[in-house]
Specification:
heterodimer; A: alpha+beta; 5 helices; 5 strands; B: alpha+beta; five-stranded mixed sheet; 28% helix
C-alpha cells in the first residue's frame, strides 16, 4: 500500500453563525468569526489517497485524474467564494474547518477511481488544520 | 462525524542536557554540544492534536478559544522564555524534547477536557520533531 498526497490552495470567505443561537450566544461562541460580513482565509488542502502501485504504470493513481477531480469538485466550487452563500453544503452547516474537511471528503470520495481516499487535511492558516478520515 | 484538529504554537526556551548519573566524559559523549554548561536555546513549535465528533450546533470539534486559553495558561506561560532546567517539571527528568513532549501531553491530558487529546508534536529545530500519544500508537 502506498499513500500519495496532492496539495491545492484556495481562498474563500466565511462566517460562523447558528440561527438557533441568540445573537449574544453567537458572539460568545464564535467571537470575531461571527461578523456577518464574513472574512477570508487562504486555505491549503491536502488530499491523501492510498492504493497498490500498478506494476505497469508505477502509479498509485493517475495524478492528472486526481487533479481534475480536485479542480472540478473542490476548487471550482469553493475558490474565491463566500462559503456560507455559494456552497450548498454550507447553507445548512456552519463552514468551520471541520465541516469543510467533511464536505470535501464527501465530494471527493465517490468520484475517485482506482485509489481510495485516505485523509483530507484542510489548513485554515499555517497554525491550524483539521484531518478527516471518513470516520462517522 | 469524527474529525481531528491540530493547532500550532511557538515558544522559546533554553536548556542543557546533562545527567548527574553519568561522568563528565559520558555526558559529553552522549549529549555533545547540548552538554555545554551554559545551556543554549531553541524556538520550539508545539502542535496539539485533539479529536472528537463535530458538534452539530457549532460545527466544531472544540472551541479554539478554549484550547488556546488552556495552552497559553498551562504550557506557554510555564515554558516560554524560561530555562527548562530550572523548572519543577525537569527537576528529575532531563529537558530533552522527548521529555518536553511527555510533560506537555500530561498537562493537557490532566486538564483539557473539551475534546479527546490525540497527540502532542514538538519541533525543536526545522530538522527534528518528536511526537507522543500517551504511549499509544500514533493514529494521525
Amino acid at each position: 500500500m502506498v499513500y500519495l498526497t496532492r496539495k491545492a490552495e484556495f481562498s474563500a470567505s466565511h462566517y460562523y453563525h447558528n440561527p438557533e443561537f441568540s445573537a449574544e450566544e453567537n458572539r460568545r461562541i464564535f467571537g470575531k468569526c461571527n461578523n456577518p460580513n464574513g472574512h477570508g482565509h487562504n486555505y491549503t488542502l491536502e488530499v491523501t489517497v492510498k492504493g497498490e502501485v500498478d506494476p505497469r504504470s508505477g502509479f498509485v493513481v493517475d495524478l492528472k485524474q486526481l487533479k481534475d477531480v480536485l479542480n472540478r469538485e473542490v476548487l471550482d466550487a469553493m475558490d474565491h467564494r463566500f462559503l456560507n452563500k455559494e456552497v450548498p453544503e454550507f447553507l445548512t452547516r456552519i463552514p468551520t474547518t471541520e465541516n469543510l474537511a467533511i464536505a470535501i471528503w464527501q465530494r471527493l470520495s465517490p468520484k475517485l477511481e482506482a485509489a481510495q481516499l485516505h485523509r483530507v487535511r484542510v489548513y485554515e492558516t499555517p497554525d491550524l488544520f483539521v484531518d478527516f478520515y471518513g470516520e462517522v | 462525524m469524527k474529525a481531528y484538529l491540530t493547532r500550532r504554537y511557538m515558544f522559546s526556551a533554553s536548556h542543557r542536557l546533562h545527567s548527574d548519573a553519568m561522568s563528565a566524559q559520558e555526558n559529553v559523549a552522549t549529549y555533545g554540544k547540548c552538554n555545554n554548561p551554559y545551556g543554549h536555546g531553541h524556538n520550539y513549535a508545539l502542535e496539539v492534536t485533539v479529536s472528537g465528533p463535530v458538534d452539530e450546533r457549532t460545527g466544531m470539534v472544540c472551541n479554539l478559544a478554549d484550547l488556546d486559553g488552556f495552552v497559553q495558561r498551562e504550557i506557554l506561560e510555564r515554558f516560554d522564555h524560561q530555562n527548562l532546567n530550572t523548572l519543577p517539571e525537569f527537576a528529575q527528568a532531563i529537558p530533552t524534547t522527548e521529555n518536553l513532549c511527555i510533560s506537555s501531553y500530561d498537562i493537557l491530558q490532566r486538564g483539557f477536557h473539551y475534546a479527546h487529546l490525540e497527540k502532542v508534536r514538538f519541533e525543536e529545530t526545522m530538522m527534528n520533531s518528536f511526537e507522543y500519544a500517551g504511549g499509544a500508537e500514533l493514529r494521525v
